[in-house]
TrEMBL record:
Organism ancestry: Bacteria, Pseudomonadati, Pseudomonadota, Alphaproteobacteria, Rhodobacterales
Claim: tRNA processing is one of the keywords in the record: no
Residues binding heme: 47, 71
Membrane spanning stretches: none
Name assigned to this protein: Group 1 truncated hemoglobin
Amino acid sequence: MAQTLYEKYGGFKTISRVVMTFYEMALDSDEIGHHFEDIDMPRLIDHQTKFVSSLIGGPASFSDDRIEAVHRHLNISHNEFDVMAELFGDALSQHGMSDGDIKTALTAIEGKRSIIVTRNAA
């Protein structure tokens, strides 16, 4: 059985650190920082750690219906999704993930674009 990226990079503990790094950058971002105002960040980081873990072979799972329902009211644009993906790639790089594995992780995230971005977004 092939090793997943989740296992290769140390599991939940490492992914949690990646997600924390991502949110440090996201909160400073002029493009997407406003999405995190008045948010319970520890709860969001825990949720996102589970979500990212699920995307790279970890034990959690989320249905597309649930992901879409959680993001529907946020009015996330394609540009904001692109910024998020770029920052997330930077966070993965900072935590030692190889370029090829970053591409694999970002491809998994890209696969959720259609249910995260607002349907009528530019």
